[in-house]
């Protein structure tokens, strides 16, 4: 495969200058012709240009939430104005400056042009568009309300990203505190304590058990300090890698539902996520059963997934959502009462939006409350460890002060 620089006219007669990857020049012209371009000139790109483009792609792989949100808004406006999906994608592709997102839009346009649905095309770029977005687009296509869904998705995308950023930001301080404490302990055990151990050995003191334990740990750390540091770094990396996998997120999410400090945060997060999704799709005119099925398919954590599944089952049986949510581990009684009111008055869309807004504020309060408990706990743990080291070191030093020199 090679890159070819080309100049061509699109279907509107506009001059387009870009690059394309193909097997040879004839294949490149054929691909461009299938895309509706009339090629006026084409040349194989120089090797250094290809290398430079590859290098630029390495540093421009990230696509921001703002870019995705803007893309969804612009796409919805163009579709609403009667522009075909393929033409809208082509126009947005030409105006995109991020190489990664530009390549993504080009592939989306190509797949849609060749007959694939938009949701199917999006499913090939799950590194950029999440499962929720793909599922919502699929529902919008099925119900014929794609432009409405895209507008709601744009607002939802920004809100969900802000929510995740808020949670990550809130956890940053405790994580940094724990990391610094771990590094300080490793340095103390590996370099400071051995000096005191030599001093105690020369003095010939009978050491207390705490000091013996501390020196044993210190000897191991100072003898194998490279292995200790490498092991510590590997544990951190493996934990982060596990936490970003679907299995890891599910395990940690379920675990957080069982910890009193984190339970309220996790519950309110899922109340906001489910309520916002339902309000979004109800306002777009999507039938209740279809939107519940779509939301269930985006859920990976067992507990909230079971909640949505139960809601769908009750709707299939002709019952209401309030009955499905009785004794639910996610939705609190107040939210259940509001949902019942929405079903009675026929205002479920606005009611779910109100629930999402209210519990979004409650989520902020829950995060602050959790931090107010976690930070002192970490400080107490650090104080206990430092206190143990001080006691183990200062008791022998205190004994040494009574030894008279011969």
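^ Assign residues to that structure.
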């Amino acid at each position: 495969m090679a890159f070819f620089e080309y100049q061509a006219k699109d279907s509107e007669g506009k001059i387009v200058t870009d690059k394309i990857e193909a097997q040879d020049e004839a294949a490149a012209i054929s691909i461009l012709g299938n895309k509706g371009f009339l090629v006026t000139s084409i040349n194989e790109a120089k090797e250094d240009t290809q290398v430079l483009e590859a290098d630029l792609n390495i540093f421009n792989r990230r696509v921001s939430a703002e870019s995705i949100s803007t893309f969804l808004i612009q796409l919805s406006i163009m579709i609403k104005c009667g522009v075909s999906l393929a033409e809208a994608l082509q126009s947005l592709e030409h105006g995109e400056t991020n190489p990664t997102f530009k390549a993504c839009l080009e592939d989306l346009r190509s797949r849609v042009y060749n007959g694939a649905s938009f949701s199917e095309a999006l499913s090939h770029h799950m590194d950029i568009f999440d499962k929720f977005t793909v599922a919502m687009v699929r529902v919008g296509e099925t119900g014929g309300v794609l432009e409405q869904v895209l507008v709601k998705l744009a607002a939802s995308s920004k809100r969900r990203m802000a929510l995740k950023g808020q949670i990550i930001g809130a956890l940053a301080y405790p994580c940094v505190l724990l990391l610094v404490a771990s590094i300080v302990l490793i340095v103390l055990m590996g370099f400071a304590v051995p000096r005191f151990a030599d001093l105690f050995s020369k003095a010939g003191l009978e050491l207390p058990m705490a000091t013996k334990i501390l020196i044993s740990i210190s000897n191991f750390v100072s003898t194998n300090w490279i292995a200790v540091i490498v092991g510590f770094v590997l544990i951190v990396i493996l934990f982060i890698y596990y936490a970003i996998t679907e299995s890891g997120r599910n395990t940690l999410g379920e675990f957080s539902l069982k910890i009193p400090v984190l339970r309220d945060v996790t519950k309110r997060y899922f109340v906001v996520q489910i309520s916002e999704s339902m309000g979004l799709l109800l306002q777009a005119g999507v039938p209740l059963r279809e939107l519940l099925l779509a939301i269930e398919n985006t859920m990976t954590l067992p507990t909230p997934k079971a909640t949505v599944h139960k809601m769908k089952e009750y709707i299939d049986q002709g019952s209401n959502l309030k009955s499905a949510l009785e004794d639910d581990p996610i939705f609190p009684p107040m939210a259940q009462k509001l949902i019942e009111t929405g079903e009675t008055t026929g205002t479920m869309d606005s009611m779910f939006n109100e629930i999402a807004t209210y519990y979004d504020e409650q989520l902020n309060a829950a995060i602050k409350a959790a931090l107010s408990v976690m930070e002192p706990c970490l400080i107490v743990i650090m104080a206990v460890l430092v206190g143990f080291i001080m006691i183990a070191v200062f008791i022998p030093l205190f004994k040494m002060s009574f030894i008279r020199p011969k």
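Residues 170 and 368 are 8 Å apart (CA to CA).
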